[in-house]
Amino acid sequence: MNLRKPLMLLVLAAPLLAFGVSFAGSVHDNMLASVVFVGCDVEFEGLPFLAGSGSAFLIASEYVITNNHVIDSCHSDNKIKVLKDALRNAFTENISQKGKLPPEMEQKMNEHLRQNPGLLPRLQSDPEFAKKYILAWIEDLSASGAKARFAGITQKLYIAYMGKEAQALIKVDVSNIVWASWHNDNARLTGVDVAVLKLARPLGDRPTVAFALGSSAQVNDVVYTVGFPGASGDTVASAKYVPTIKKGIVSKLGGEAPGFSDEARAKGLKGVPVIETDAAMSFGNSGGPLYNEHGEVLGVVSFGPKDRAAGGIGWAQDIAVVLPVLKDLGLPLPKIRGTPRTWIEQNATLVWVGAAGLMLVLLLLAARTFLHRRPTAPPHAGGGRPPQRQVGPTSVAQSPAIRGRAGEHAGRSILIPLNGLILGRNAVGEAGLVFSENSGISRKHCSIVYLEGSQRFEVTDFGSTNGTFAIPGEKRLPANQKLVCKAGQIIRLGRQDEFELVLQ
Questions:
Q1: What is the DSSP letter of 10?
Q2: Beta bridge partners of 50
Q3: Cα(167)–Cα(160) distance, rounded to whole angstroms?
Q4: H helices of 215-261, where?
Q5: Minimal CA–CA distance to 337: which of 209, 251, 245?
Q6: 96, 395, 428, 493: which has the highest count of C-beta atoms within 10 A?
Q7: In this structure, which topology does domain 34-41+51-71+158-340 adopt according to CATH?
């Protein structure tokens, strides 16, 4: 059986198939890598009694966006409210479980009844009045107790990002809540539920996001919720916890957030625009991104139905609500799409596949012509075998090198010695490329070796602090593992030093 044609077809079609798989994979990988877990733990006099958790996403290497309600208990000026809520819950639970008032409440109420002789008969004869009376007492005791004891509260805010192995938690000082709708009267009245946190250290190797306003979406568009549904601080700290991605569609555009108030309407304010979707979301998804299928953030996941049994529906705040916040903070705005994609943009992959398919057909026709060609040699006048054709050299020897594209060595071409080139702050010598001390490059960052036999390059990261990346794709090289690549490959050291591997 002649396998030449099928094998050639497979070889020519392989890049086309690989493109479709890698494109979908890279979009989803970036979605997952842009999301971090957010935890807020509160302790009162050494005992944990209240916590919040959810998701967030990177808008710059040092800043993340989440819901205000996720970190509400960690506002530095919110301690009295937090303790008041906790005391109210404790008093109510004590009454419902034990069937009697807490001692401090009972003592004060008895004094009040002695001073008001007609009050007790009314409490005994009017259950509705008695209920309101007791609730008012609970509210007063909670408020007075919170004001007296709030100094005993400790708030802990942190984020975690997960991969194949559990990572250390990153502390976020509560003073680094750089913006929150809790502090903004108009935001609270209109239902905005957003907070911006500044991280203690940048996450330069994680992808940031692009935005797509709700005006760019259409009903039935494919969307994804990405985050940590059902997560808790204990789960994240003790397990290899990773974010999840759930697929759905846009079921409705527009509408107003549930928190929109009559007071806001009286002021002429509009409610927060929301995007309704059937993509799964639950506790822990709050604050995470709602992505479109192109990897752009459409909204901030914020609300679910009050009746959890209803299921199958949720809402994200239109990402447009975040833009004025970022402008007020002076943070750089990401790329923003404001209108729906054209047919060509929506079907870019299909167009590319069609063009590639046409190219494949042309290549197959050329291959078929080549395989069926039967060259004949002219008869040799002297008989016997014809003389062999002398073949001269077909190429000129080329030297391997790296060419600086960005950073400290931009514009330079550096030849790669026979034994390879070492790059780093301490790479002194003929076989080394030296970087300045404040460059962010490790003392011995990576090596590049040229394999003359296969005309390939080998790039090896030596476990550098800020990493070595293959571009495009921003893929970080594992420590001490060789990346074999061809001329034309671009690599980045740390955050800004880029080089192209060339033959010159």
A1: H
A2: 42
A3: 7
A4: 233-238
A5: 209
A6: 493
A7: Thrombin, subunit H (2.40.10)
